[in-house]
């Protein structure tokens, strides 16, 4: 009985950690979209560099989900990237649209 209980606790902890990571990624996506709107980066001419677009090898503190969230937003074409590493919102994008990690 103890073994079954421990297995269920481990499975529950694993599922909870996946939900937590998805929630943090969604919050990071929302933050990035609001940041680009605040900087008025709506086309290639107004593209801006984002300080959190690159990960550092040496980091102290909590995990930063913004670089992975930025990559996901570029992959699903909510954000576009120029060759110089500058980012802007794609044409017609609204923050209420589908965001990676958001339930359908």
Write the layout of secondary structure elements.
Elements lengths: L1 H37 L9 E2 L16 H10 L3 E3 L4 E4 L15
Antiparallel strand pairs: 1-3, 2-3
Helix pairs in contact: 1-2
Report on this model:
The protein is mostly helical. It has one domain (2-89). It has two helices and three strands, in the order H-E-H-E-E. The protein has helices spanning 2-38, 66-75; strands at residues 48-49, 79-81, 86-89. A three-stranded antiparallel β-sheet has the order 1-3-2. A hairpin with a 4-residue loop joins strand 2 (79-81) and strand 3. Helix 1 (2-38) packs across helix 2. The longest helix is centred in the N-terminal third of the chain and has 37 residues, at 2-38.
Task: Find the count of extended strands (DSSP E, 2+ residues).
Answer: 3
Please provide the ordered H/E string of secondary-structure elements.
HEHEE
Q: Report strand order across the widest sheet.
A: 1-3-2
> What percentage of amino acids are in beta strands?
5-15%
Overall 3D form: elongated
Structural class: mainly alpha
* Overall radius of gyration: 17 Å
The total number of structural domains is: 1
Euclidean distance between termini CA atoms: 38 Å
Largest sheet: 3 strands, antiparallel
Q: How much helix, percentage-wise, in residues? A: 40-55%
Low-confidence stretches: none
- Please work out how many helical segments DSSP would assign: 2
Q: Would you tell me the overall average pLDDT?
A: 84
């Amino acid at each position: 009985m103890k073994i079954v209980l421990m297995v269920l606790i481990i499975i529950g902890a694993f599922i909870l950690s996946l939900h937590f990571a998805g929630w943090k990624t969604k919050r990071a996506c929302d933050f990035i979209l609001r940041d680009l709107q605040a900087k008025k980066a709506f086309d290639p001419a107004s593209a801006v560099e984002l300080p959190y677009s690159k990960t550092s090898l040496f980091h102290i503190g909590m995990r930063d989900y913004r670089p992975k969230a930025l990559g996901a937003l570029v992959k699903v074409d909510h954000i576009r990237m120029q060759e110089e590493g500058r980012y802007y919102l794609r044409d017609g994008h609204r923050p209420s649209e589908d965001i990676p990690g958001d339930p359908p």
